[in-house]
């Protein structure tokens, strides 16, 4: 297994483990050639026995490398670690000094309308850039949205991403935020990510995901047939309407693009006051740069 101090391909020194997950680990690292701080995502070596996992990791690298947007994480390199460091494939990304939105919600309980709106505008713009590149993220959730100390939102983890209108033999994504068409295996479109972002917004202002259950299967099935419980009484009517439209079970009845969703949220914030969606004060601390 990799250890602090290991150097990948003579260039990327692993400094500190910052996140672990079912697919691998994320390390804070140093590019010793350029002298800059980076994040290294290491895939668990055992997963490479399945060619699909290695292929998916390479696809994630190519997808991310093709995207250039201030709210999308940058990728710098892809390779395979030496046997002494575990032998797994790895991605080198920009290091984000911030915390996942999931942690922010856990600490605050519920987020304010302004804070939620700031996140929505930026995340929707990131998704629109992704969609224009022909890619559907397919796993928009609080853990995949990082918040920096100045309030910038960064979209990360394209491991479940698919080309527009693609279908998949297996369901990838996270049950609490999964659009109905994802659950049933229908083609994914930009509306799929709009639904998920609407579910994230619901979680922010309600303090809980729109649907819960004892198993992931129970939760996904609720996306098909149930309506989310009413939002708290203090959530403004306009934000309720925005979330309701984004989470419509019929893709054609949602916002036509993530950019339209961003514009609608921005108008809502503007009518509430002069607070800029980018400059809302978000109390955060340094944390993991990505999810595995």
Structure commentary:
The protein is built from 8 helices and 11 strands. The protein is α+β, with helices and mostly antiparallel strands. Helices cover 34% and strands 17% of the residues. The chain has 2 domains: 88 residues, Phosphorylase Kinase, domain 1 (2-Layer Sandwich); 174 residues, Transferase(Phosphotransferase), domain 1, CATH 1.10.510. The strands form 3 sheets. It has a 6-stranded antiparallel β-sheet with strand order 1-2-3-4-6-5, covered by helices on one side. Strands 7-9-10 form a 3-stranded antiparallel β-sheet.
In short:
The chain has 292 residues and is α+β, with helices and mostly antiparallel strands. Helix content is 34%, strand content 17%.
What does the secondary structure layout of this molecule look like, with pairings?
Elements: E1 7-8, E2 12-20, E3 24-31, E4 36-43, H1 51-65, E5 75-80, E6 89-94, E7 99-100, H2 101-108, H3 113-132, E8 135-136, E9 145-147, E10 153-155, E11 162-163, H4 180-183, H5 190-206, H6 216-225, H7 237-246, H8 258-272
Antiparallel strand pairs: 1-2, 2-3, 3-4, 4-6, 5-6, 7-9, 8-11, 9-10
Oligomer: single chain
Radius of gyration: 19 Å
CATH topology value of the largest domain:
Transferase(Phosphotransferase), domain 1
Spatially, the strands of the biggest sheet line up as 1-2-3-4-6-5
Going by CATH, the architecture of the largest domain would be Orthogonal Bundle
SSE string, helix = H, strand = E?
EEEEHEEEHHEEEEHHHHH
Number of beta strands:
11
Largest sheet: 6 strands, antiparallel
Q: What is the distance, rounded to the nearest whole angstrom, between the alpha carbons of the first and last residues?
A: 16 Å
Number of alpha- plus pi-helical segments:
8
The level of helicity is 25-40%
Total number of domains:
2
> What's the name of the CATH homologous superfamily of the largest domain?
Transferase(Phosphotransferase) domain 1
- Just give the CATH class of the largest domain: Mainly Alpha
Q: Could you report the average pLDDT, rounded to the nearest whole number?
A: 86
Molecular shape = globular
């Amino acid at each position: 297994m990799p250890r602090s101090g290991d150097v990948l391909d003579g260039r990327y020194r692993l400094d500190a483990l910052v996140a672990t997950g079912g697919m691998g680990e994320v390390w804070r690292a140093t590019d010793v050639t350029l002298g800059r701080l980076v994040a290294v995502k290491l895939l668990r070596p055992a997963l490479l026995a399945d060619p699909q996992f290695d292929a998916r990791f390479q696809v994630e690298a190519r997808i991310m490398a093709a995207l250039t947007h201030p709210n999308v994480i940058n990728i710098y390199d892809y390779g395979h670690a030496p046997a002494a460091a575990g032998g797994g494939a790895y991605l080198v990304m920009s290091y984000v000094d911030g915390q996942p939105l999931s942690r922010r919600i856990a600490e605050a309980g519920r987020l304010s309308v302004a804070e939620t709106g700031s996140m929505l505008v930026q995340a929707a713009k990131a998704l629109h850039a992704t969609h224009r590149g022909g890619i559907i993220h397919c796993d928009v959730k609080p853990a995949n949205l990082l918040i920096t100390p100045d309030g910038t939102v960064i979209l990360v983890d394209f491991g479940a991403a698919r080309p527009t209108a693609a279908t998949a033999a297996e369901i990838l994504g996270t049950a609490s935020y999964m659009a109905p068409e994802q659950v049933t295996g229908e083609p994914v479109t930009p509306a799929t990510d709009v639904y998920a972002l609407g579910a994230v917004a619901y979680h922010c202002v309600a303090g809980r995901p729109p649907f819960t259950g004892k198993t992931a299967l129970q939760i996904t099935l609720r996306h098909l047939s149930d309506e989310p419980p009413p939002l708290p009484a203090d959530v403004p009517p306009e934000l309720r309407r925005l979330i309701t439209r984004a989470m419509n079970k019929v893709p054609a009845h949602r916002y036509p693009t993530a950019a339209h969703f961003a514009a609608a949220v921005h108008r809502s914030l503007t009518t509430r006051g002069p607070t800029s969606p980018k400059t809302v004060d978000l109390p955060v601390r340094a944390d993991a740069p990505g999810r595995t």
